[in-house]
Each structure stands twice: as structure tokens, then as C-alpha cells.
Specification:
Elements (H helix, E strand, L loop, with lengths): L1 E4 L13 E3 L4 E4 L8 E6 L5 H5 L14 E3 L5 E5 L8 H13 L6 E5 L21 H28 L7 E3 L2 E3 L5 E3 H9 L6 E3 L18 H5 L15 E6 L7 E6 L1 H4 L4 E8 L5 E7 L2 H9 L2 E5 L8 H12 L4 E4 L11 E9 L11 E7 L2 E6 L4 H12 L6 E5 L15 H15 L6 E4 L2 H6 L7 E9 L5 E11 L8 H4 E2 L2 E2 H4 L10 E8 L13 H19 L3 H9 L4 H14 L10 E10 L2 E12 L2 E12 L6 H17 L9 E2 L2 E2 L17 E6 L17 H13 L14
Parallel strand pairs: 1-33, 6-7, 12-22, 20-21, 24-27, 30-33
Antiparallel strand pairs: 2-11, 3-4, 4-5, 5-6, 8-9, 9-10, 12-15, 13-16, 14-15, 17-27, 18-23, 19-20, 19-22, 23-24, 25-26, 28-29, 29-30, 31-32
Amino acid sequence: MRIEWMNGVNATVPDLAVAQDISRRNFMKVSGVLGGGLVLGFFIPGANKFANAQAAKAPTIYAPNAFLRIAPDNTVTVAVNRLEFGQGVNTSLPMLIAEELDADWSQVRSELAPAADAYKDPAFGIQITGGSGSIKHSYMQYREIGARARAMLVSAAAQQWGVPSEKCKTAKGMITGPSGQKLSYGSVADAAMKLPVPEKVTLKDPKQFHIIGKPTPRLDARVKSTGKQQFGIDNHMAGMKVAVVARPTVFGAKVAKFDASKAKAIKGVIDVLEVPTDRGGSGVVVIATGYWPAKQGRDALLIEWDSSAAEKVSSDLQLVDYKELARQPGTVAKDADISKLASAPKKITADYEFPYLAHAPMEPLNCVVDLKTDGCTVWAGSQFQTIDQGAIARTAGLKPEQVTLHTMMAGGGFGRRAVPTSDYIVEAVNVAKAYMASGKSGPVKVMWSREDDIKGGYYRPAYVHRAEIGLDEKGNILAWNHTIVGQSILTGTPFESMLVKNGIDSTTIEGMGEPYRVSMKLSVHNTKQNVPVLWWRSVGSTHNAFVMETLIDEAAQVAGIDPVAYRKQLIGKDHPRHFAALDLAVEKSGYGKKALPAGHAWGVAVHESFDTVVAYVVEASVENGVPKLHRVTGGVNCNRAINPMSIEAQAQGAILMGLGMTLPGAAITLKNGVVEQQNFSDYTVARMPDMPTVEIHIVPSDDAPTGMGEPGLPPLAPAFANAIAKLTGKRLRKLPFDLANA
């Protein structure tokens, strides 16, 4: 696998203006910590679209909301206002500050910020890692922090030397005066702290960048590759107890009665208690001196469950219902004239099926809670610090300011650690409450096993699509009638008022239609099922991209036109970023020019999600009746690339995860309300031997960056399916692939 970073500049829109007027923002400066030094941070009010939608006020700034700390030894520590769980923000965000600061990159460190108002996303108004927005939303924020810190350091040095600030220069953490005198940042950091924060700063011209845009190894690469990185699950402290919870097998069921005598007889078990669980249910927690006795204690429990009030979903029956709904009129999300559909000389009619999907991060969920009467301290790998902090406070009967939430390094998440209900964190606080009510105290770590994680809900929803497309004799699309059936992710969450319109969850339809110029009538049935659902890496695009890109490919086949040429014909000139990504992938892959081995075929797909366009050209075959992916060439248009190495890594991971969606066994199914899968033995995830050869190429741009955490996933499965269709003549209509029944 390799990456190519092209340094040309072809973008028509220049980078954000280098001379920035920041007087509209509120700035703050708080005292240095850990030995003194400069600490700088700021909060942007008025950019909070979620809070504005709910008429919320700008949150108060509390000290110490520090983004930057410069120690006397010249090390620069950057506070990262996100969760690091593999996407690389612990490196990319510090790169932004270090660039404008003129820091010595070898002296830069990073740490995860706790939950606090100052660390809220400048656009979302809550502290969040999601929507591929970390770089996109903090690009200017972190650059401006670095520029302000640099200006304050230069002013401090200039005052010490008695020279004008404009006569001083900076490079690699050092300030040089007009006579060649030198001072390190660390030596003047305390003096800089006493100066006012400048309201206006001049950011670098991108031509001056020496950190941004350069392939940069991750700051946490060594500790992770040597096993020294401490994740949430590794968290241990004096006096800590470990808890595991026996949860109801049917979502929302309750404990009727339980016998804990055998569990309490196991050495190390301290207590067995009934606790509230998610969706109004209840469970039984075993608290012990360590994980193993707690698990053994749970295994020894005898529990009778009352599921009489809970709906019991069965996947086979649900599929029948969904298919029937897909043939009925739904709520119209996009209207269009489809009068030509009935008389169209050529037609494509297709039904698509998509199962529930578990996130299955490598590190299962975990949370440490230290609850006291006057406060609560929590350690968790949270994607939703603001929401989780509020949920902790409500559950514990405290005020938010009495809650300290430490953000822990997490081993993956893909959306599972950003839950509007804060399910696993609320459960952990309820465990701590029960533990305290029993007369005990001290930190308790609630741990989920792999089985708990797979069976624990909050899945990507199951969906059914039905498409009816009319084409003329030349293969031009005349009309497209499309219906989607599936649960709403957002209904009943704090995001409903903003993102659910006319009863339609916007995540259900994202990625449908665009960028193609087609007359599509799009209808939706957002169902209610007793299965907790959640966003899953790239959200609605996980299924909509597959449907769009396989149907467009099929239409190209009907038209007898090359699928790349057909896409470009339908995209039109209004989407130059799609053209750029697609052209780059085609050029670098050798599509249409290079002869493939016998039994191999090309597949193509292009899709935009979270403002980033990704195109894949793949090479695939069918070996012993099983689809095999050999090579993926990607064209990525995420505007300005901050760290090309992170872009490559995100695309690689997304490709493997997207490939996993196609593999037999990549489905969560239910029978009478009970999830049938429990571990990687019966829930398939892609593994290293499945990984194809990957080449990622970045479209050069000076536009402000977009995100890469999710957009690399959606085009993979349809590109793969399109290649298999060329080889077999069979159009794959469901995930995971089922070639035998296609």
C-alpha cells in the first residue's frame, strides 16, 4: 500500500483569508499548570447550530479551558477537544497549532481534553467527535490559537530585549531578535502569560506551511505499537472494583427474580445488586475485586426475566413487513415528476436488503465511576462529552459542574461511543449508585465483554429499498420512484428537532439522488421497532451509496455506455469535486488502459458524504464461487490535506470495514426479540487476510479541509458489487453478498 500526495494547486477557491479579524470572538487566558508556562484557549459563541435550534444560550467559560501549554523545557502540549479512537486527531489537530506557533514538531505532545465548555465543537456547540468534523470544524480554531500564542511569545521576548516585535522571527520553538539574540518559547512563556491576548492575528499564507500538508507519523504510534498505550479498559486505580452486568436478553425486559447465592460464593465477589438498564429495563450487576471473579459470578446467576411488555422482533418477519411497506406510498422526502415511468421502454426494478450491523470496536465498552455525595468523577472513551456529562449529572442527582468527565483513549467506536441516551455511561452511574446505597464506596469499573457488545444493541438499522427506474431506448433515465423502509436513528433524541423534518429522519435519505441529475421521487417509511439503533460509520451512506452506485452502474449497462462515462454524463458540471476524485482514481488505476488478468474485472463507485468525495476503482474476481477483492485505487477529495498519512490510514480502515459489510455473516439478526449473534465466531468482521492492495491518491486543493473519518467507507461495497456483476451477470441486491441467490 502506498500514498501519493500531489503538490499542485488547482483549486479555484483560495484558502481562508490569512488576515483574520477575530474581534467577534471571546478569548480567555488562564494560569499555567504543571510547572507554569503559557496556556491559551478560546470559545466561539454564536456558531452553535444545535444550541441555536433549541434556543440555548452560549455556555459559560470555566477555567482551566486550556488548549496549549508550553513548559520551561520547551515542550508544547496541545489539548485535543475530541476523542482519539484511531482516527489520528491526537496528531492532526496539534499540527494546526504547531504550524501557526512555529513550534519544533519534535517537542509537541498531545493530551485528550476533559468535558468542558471551552472544548465544545465550534460548529456544533457540544463537545463531540462525529460527523467527520474534527478537522473541518477546528481547522481555523486551532490555527488561531497557535497564531495568538506565537504573537504573545514574540511580544514577551521583544519586551525583554527592548526591540519591536515585528523585528523578531520565530522558528522551531525559538525566537530570534534583530541582533541574533535567541530565546526559547519555554523561557518566555510565563512572561507571555501576563500579556493581553491579541484580538487580531495574521495567519500564515499556505505557501509558508511546513507542517500542514506534510505526511507526519502519529504522535501515539510508538506507544500503541509497543502496547504501552493506556486505553479506557486498562484504567486502574487504588481501591477500584470491577462490575459486569447481566442485561435482559430482550431489549427493555426486566428482572422478575434472581438467585445470587452461587455468585456470592465465588471468591472475590463483593456484592450482587439489581440495577436499571437501558430502555426502561433492569438487570443484575456483580461487583468484584476483578473482572474474572465478576464474570464468573455473573455466569453463576439464576435470573428469570419478565419480557411480557417488550416487543419481540424477529428479523425474518421484519423483512416481510419491510418489503410490503416498500410497495406502499410513504412520506415523500423528495418529490419529482415520474409520469414517464409507466410508459418507459426500458425499466429497472430492484429490491435491496440491508441487515442490522454491530459496531464491534476492538475495545468493548467500559466506564469507571467514582461517585460521592457531592460529586462524581468518570473516566470513559466518550464521543459525546457534553451529552454524557449531562446524563451523568441527571442520573447521579448532581449539577453538571459537579461532574468531572475524563476522556480516555478508545480502541475504536464507529459511532457506538456517541449515544444520545448515554446508555452505557448511565448504566455505570446506576451501578455506582447501587454500590453506594449498599454502604460501600470507591471507584467502580463497569466492563462489557465482547458478547455484551455484540448483543447490546444500538445497531445500524436494517433497511429495505425498492427502486423503479424508467429509461428511454438510449438508456437515459426518465423517471425514478424510490422507497426506503427502516428505523429512525434521530427520533426521540436531542437532534430530532433539527434533523427530523416532516417525520423523516434526514440520515435515512442522505446520499440519495445527488450528484446525479435524475428525476427521483423519494419516499420513506420510518418504522418503530424494539431494537435500539444508532449511527454507524458514514450513517445513511452505508446503504444509500450501495443502492445509488449499483443502480447507476446497471443503468449504464442498459445504456451500453462505459460506467465511468455514464456517471460523468449524469453528474454534470455542477459537481467538479466528484469529477476530480473520479478522474484521479481512474487515471491512477489504469482503468480502461491496463489489461486485467483473466477472470478479473473493474468496478467503479463515487460518493460524497460529510462534504468529502471518494471514488474507488476496484479489481475483483470470483474464486470458487466467492467474490474476492484484489485491488482498490482511491481518489479522495477532502480539500486541503492536513496530514496525508492520516488520510491514507482512514481510507484503508474504511475500505476494510466496507469490505466487511459484504462478507457472509456480517449481519445482526433477531429471533423472538433475542439477538442471535454473540461474538466474532458468528458475527463476521473483515480481517487482515481479506485486505486488498490499496492505493490512495489525494486531489490537491487549497480549500478549507473537510473530514475523512467516514467518507472512505460508502463507495467500497458498490464498487466491489459492480465488478462482480460484470463477471457473473448477477446484480447483488443485498448486503452481505449472497452470490448464490442473486
